[in-house]
Every structure is written in structure tokens, then in C-alpha cells.
Write the C-alpha cells for this entry.
Amino acid sequence: MTSPRDSLLRLSSSVCEAAEAVSVEERVSRATAGADASISLGAGYGLTLSARVIRDGRIGLGTSFGPPDLPGLVEMAISAARLGPRATFDFPGRSDPGRLDTSHPALEAMAAEDLAGYILQACDILEERLPGSVLTGSMSLRRTAIALANTSGFEGSYEKTTLEVILDVSTPQRSSRTLTQGLRFSTGLPLADAEVVLEDVMERAALPAAEGWIPGADCSVIVAPQVLSAVLQSLRAGSSASALVSRSTPLMGREGTLLAPSIVSIMDRPRLPYGAASAPFDAEGVPTADRSLISAGRFAGFVYDLATSAAAGSGSAGSAGRAAGEPPFPVCTNLVMSTGSESLGGLMRRAGTGMIVASVLPGGSGDLMKGDFDFQVSCAVVFSGGEPVGVASGFPFSGNTYRLLAAIEAVEDSLHCAGQDWLPHVLVPPGWNGPNG
């Protein structure tokens, strides 16, 4: 039986100089925990078809969601090409992206009921260790099948399974305030036992409230992996060659220059086994490759798709991402930072006095391209004499990504899944963000 992707490519190529067809089929199983201790199960299915064509030397894109109208989809792409950008590149030809583990058997075997059981186990552990705690949010299994082909001869497909965790643990404190901690990550690996996953959350929640505490100018800061992942969104944006071509990135012309101490190295790893954003080929059919963004403190370069590679005169591509209904654009995937030589306890002892910014509220503000960020802290661990003494919340954590990277004093010896990244805790000294801290 001919697949929708193949039918779309055949139809597109009959009326255009060149064409590309992509199908994305997605099945989602979800368990959601409500504040009333209820758990509901859900499921979803979606099929997205996209045609990107070159007609009369211009590029057009058409996308459909749900049951496809192939002739209408091709007409949409042709109409877009009438006013579309000039084609400055060719679609990639045949290649061998190689094998990549993207779908773990343990996740493939799971269902929404298994997610619900995990949440119930987590609730029981929290009730035993932290009576009165409430767990809310969701766990989702996302099974995705991606297939891409073009008229230059490339044809490829792969399947991946990812587990997405978006959970909040709210714990009442003696001060009548509530401490809320978030767990937010996406992975292609099976989870450890709920007690292991919740251990840090429970240890922090068991600390006394540091009433009225706010960080002073003499406060050292340890940034937890989950918060560091949010801060590094500016590095993702600034390293995209679309920002280079538009001359909007502060990293322009800084290849080979120092951004951070030599202990800091960060890689974009689209070929990380079971990574949440891993793929054997990118959204245009170019084989992926792991790339260094920061190597021993120095900026190593940008990530490119075909269009920005042509515009910048670079021979490097393979970093195209694609949002439904939009043309490809260069993106970072799984960021992995190199480890240091000290445990988290060692970082606290080195600093003496300070705080661990453990979690922030979703969202935040700032100027992503300049690197400015402003988050509201939902949980910070206050430490003194190298030991945790309390928890605080409700104050801002703001600054600049590039100043934070430049100020890193020490790096933890372990990596943790945060967002879709694998990152350590990092220590920055007092005054890292300028005169106002």
C-alpha cells in the first residue's frame, strides 16, 4: 500500500521542479493527577503531512492536519511558492544516517495505566514522608513515527518514544505557606523508582522555611540543572544560524573566543541514545551529528539548516528542526554539559554560604536573544557553612545567560535530566551578575 507521504511526493513532483514530503504520526497516552487526588487517563492521535516544493525557483510550504486532501495540500504549497523565498539550496540526496537508538523497549511496552500506577506510587511515598503534600500535573508517553522523502533521492524514516513529565509537588510549611517544586523533563529512557525521582524534592521540602530570607550581595548561587536548562534557552537561540543570518545574535563573530572558563563545555547531541530530541536525520533529511557549542570555554560555532548554510556560505548543516505548519529552521536538540570534579555537597562547602536555585515558576520573561532572563523562584535551598539550613521562595532570579556562563566557578560531577538536556549543578560567586548581584 502506498503511504500518504509517497503519494504526496509523487503528486508534488509532477507539478514542481523539486519537492519534499514529510509525514509525522503521533500517538499520545497520558495520566493526569488533579489537586483532588484524582487521576484521569487520556489518549490522542494526530497525523501531519507537509509538502515543501520548489516551483519557478521559489519555495512554498503546505501542511495538513488530520485526514489529508493531497491535491489541496499541493495547491497550498504552490500558492505559497508564488511569494515564497528564492531557493538557494537543493534538497539532500541519498545518504546513510546510520543507526540510532530512539525507542526504548521498556517505554514501548508502557501504557497510560502504567503512568497512573507510577503517579499513585509517588503520591503514597509523598504522603508517608511529607503528610499533606499534593502532587499535580501529568506524565505522557509520546510515540512518534517520522517519514521524509524528496525528489533528490533521500528517503528515510524512524520511530521514537519519549516520556514527558510535568509534575508539581506542593508541601505545606509550618509558616502556613506552601512550597511548590516542579519536576519537568523529557526522556527516551525509563524512569527510576518514584522514590529515587522524588528524593531531592522530599529532602528540600523537609527543611524548615527560611522566613523572610532574600539573597544578598554576598550570596553565592548554585544553579540546579532544571533552572540551568531554562537559562540556556538564550544559548540555543543565539547559536542558531537564523540569528546569525539576521545579525541578531550577540555571538556573531565570536567563534573561538572565550564565553566561559575552560571547565565549561556544552555540546548539542542529536545522536544521544534515547535522547528526547534525538534523530538520525534532521527535518530536511540531512544526517545529524553531535556538535560542540562551547569547547573548553570557547564558542565553537553555530548550528545550520540548508537555507542558513547557503546564506552563510557554510558547508555545515544537519540541524534543521520543524514545527507543524512552518518551514524548517536551525535548532539545538539535547544539550549536554561536561561534568566537573565536585559533588553538590562539595559545591556547597566550597561556597560556604549561599543558595541553590532549585526550581522556578514556568514562563519567565527577558530578552531571549540578548541573554537576559527573569524568573520567579519557587524553591531555593539556603545553605550556610556548606550545609542546607532552610528553603525560601517568592523572589526573582534574574540576570544574563552569558554573564552567568562567564562566571561559573565550579561544576558538579554528575549529570541530571532537565527539560530535554543533561546538565550538572553549577556554582557562580557573589556579584556574578554585576554590581547589583
